[in-house]
Structure formats: structure tokens, C-alpha cells
Design goal:
15% helix; 118 residues; three-stranded antiparallel sheet; 41% strand; 1 helix; four-stranded antiparallel sheet; alpha+beta; signal
Length: 118
């Protein structure tokens, strides 16, 4: 009977801890747009472990090349995950910006890559 009470208490504590999480998604990667085979990596940024969130990532191509594909990948699985909001521009234009939200500080790294037309 004592074991059952401990299990129920532990389950309630775990449920309440998850309910207090600021992140509502367990996503580990995001993809925006489509990547034609001839597109090249034109921008890359890594938010390293320990980075404070929210963090903004934006890029404007100096050669006015369109950004058609963006990826954001965590380097390992986390039950907390992260979410992404588009803040500026859009896919198919030379400029785009995103805000990454999640636990702070990050307990994993996130790599953002943007691919532009040749």
C-alpha cells in the first residue's frame, strides 16, 4: 500500500512539473520551405549549450539571393524541446528572421541553417 501511494505521489509530481514547463512542444527540429538540389548553404549559426532563450536568428543575403529552405536542429533529444516563431521576412525572399523559445539556458545546442538559390 505504501508503494502504491509513493507511485501515485510521484506521478502527480511529475505531471505538475511538466504542466509548469514553459515549452509546449517536444520538437527537436524544424524545416521551412523546400530545398532544390542546386541550393547552397548561405548562412549557419549554432546556439550553443548554455545560450539564453528566447534568441533571435535573422539573415539578409547581401547578394539579394532568395532563401528558400531553413532548418533548425537540436544536437540531441530533450524532453523540453523548443519552439520557433517567424519574426521577419519570409521564405522565398532575401531576408528572414526567427525567434527560438524554450528552456533557458539551453541544455543542448541548436544549429540553424539557411539555403539560398545559386
Amino acid at each position: 500500500m505504501t508503494t502504491l501511494r509513493l507511485l501515485v505521489l510521484g506521478a502527480l509530481c511529475l505531471a505538475s512539473c511538466r504542466a509548469l514547463s514553459l515549452v509546449v512542444s517536444q520538437e527537436q527540429s524544424y524545416f521551412f520551405g523546400t530545398k532544390p538540389a542546386d541550393h547552397l548553404l548561405c548562412y549557419s549559426k549554432t546556439l550553443s549549450k548554455g545560450t539564453a532563450l528566447p534568441a533571435s536568428v535573422s539573415y539578409t543575403n547581401p547578394n539579394d539571393k532568395k532563401i528558400n529552405f531553413v532548418t533548425m536542429n537540436a544536437d540531441r533529444y530533450s524532453v523540453l524541446g523548443f519552439t520557433v516563431d517567424k519574426t521577419d521576412g519570409q521564405i522565398g525572399t532575401p531576408a528572414v528572421g526567427y525567434r527560438l523559445n524554450g528552456p533557458s539556458p539551453l541544455t543542448y545546442a541548436i544549429t540553424v541553417e539557411m539555403f539560398c538559390e545559386p
